[in-house]
Design a protein that fits this description.
Elements: E1 5-8, H1 18-25, H2 31-39, E2 44-45, E3 48-49, E4 61-64, E5 90-93, E6 97-102, H3 118-125, E7 133-134, E8 143-149, H4 152-163, E9 168-176, E10 185-187, E11 190-194, E12 200-204, E13 212-221, E14 224-231, H5 238-245, H6 259-267, E15 275-283, E16 289-293, H7 298-306
Length: 307
């Protein structure tokens, strides 16, 4: 592409983030290059600069910059151990929605145009689906329920339900120490920082965005507590940062627990973050309430059984 092009947003892509729109339109271009184009204003919507999380509207005119695509470097196929995503890990499916039991270790998005994450894997494996977009996200090391829209109208409706608190998400988390039974709600604003390396780090800060997480003690063990967690807002790393703020970081959390705590969890046999998206409840296209659940992953269940 030698000159910029312009695309008008149709109903099909209304509500989609502009970064995801670019990833689809500019296949083969590394994501780092696309985000740089957004930061530098090479990408414009209706002649104005936009951030990566801008959601497109019907009729928006998107300037596509003249970015040279990587030649002869096709997107690699998903690793063999992710090939069951479309079959064994589909928890729920209808005409407009999939709920996938995301395995730990798989990012929801690939790191560049040459690597694949969950959404890229699904697009490769479900070639008959013309539209597959993430409704929300999970951290790479978090397992469990993840919604993927198969239609733009469904994506828009589920985003409305998220904004209005109609989608109920429950997690299982194992935290350091003995969680106080009376500590049920944490409301602490979260501020997100992106380091030069691209790593995201979040901290409690009065300049941050409002965040509310509900915690319930399920079971106590020696040196740790199993919690059911309900995030009422959807901030990056919200559960992990609120748990640390309470003085009880999640077991296996390399980012938000101390080095000694992390080494201790590894020494006890926990090889990853103990956080699992257990259930999702939402309204389907007919207005019926649907609840979908994912059993605890075998590695986490084995660790609990050993406790």
């Amino acid at each position: 592409m030698n000159r910029p092009g312009f695309l008008e947003v149709s109903d099909e892509y209304a509500g989609q983030r502009v970064d995801n729109f670019l990833i689809r339109e500019l296949k083969g271009v590394p994501k780092s290059r696309l985000y740089r184009a957004l930061r530098k204003g090479e990408v414009r919507v209706n002649r104005g600069r936009v951030k990566a999380d801008y959601r497109l509207q019907v009729g928006d005119r998107v300037r596509i910059p003249p970015i040279r695509m990587a030649a002869g470097q096709p997107i690699q196929p998903p690793p063999a151990h992710w090939l069951g995503l479309d079959r064994e890990r589909t928890l729920y499916e209808d005409r407009g929605l999939l709920v996938i039991n995301k395995p730990a270790g798989l990012a929801v998005h690939g790191g560049s145009g040459l690597t694949v994450g969950l959404i890229e894997s699904l697009r490769l494996m479900r070639s008959g689906d013309n539209y597959l977009e993430l409704v929300h996200r999970l951290d790479r090391e978090t397992s469990g329920c993840l919604m993927v829209a198969r239609r733009a109208a469904v994506l828009k409706e589920l985003h409305r339900q998220l904004r209005e608190g109609r989608i109920d998400k429950r997690y299982l988390a194992l935290v350091e120490g003995q969680w106080p039974r009376q500590l049920r709600d944490i409301e602490a604003p979260l501020l997100k920082n992106t380091l030069r390396s691209g790593e995201r780090v979040v901290r409690v800060d009065k300049a941050g965005k409002f965040a509310h997480t509900e915690f319930q003690v399920l079971r106590r063990f020696a040196g740790c507590t199993l919690l059911q967690v309900r995030p009422h807002t959807g901030r990056t790393h919200q559960i992990r940062v609120h748990a640390r703020h309470a003085g009880h970081p999640l077991l296996g959390d390399a980012k938000y627990s101390s080095r000694d705590q992390f080494k201790s969890a590894r020494g006890r046999g926990l090889q990853r973050l103990f956080l699992h998206a257990q259930t999702l409840s939402f309204d389907d296209a007919g207005g019926e309430r649907v609840t979908v659940g994912a059993e605890l992953e075998p590695d986490l269940q084995k660790f609990l059984d050993a406790l």
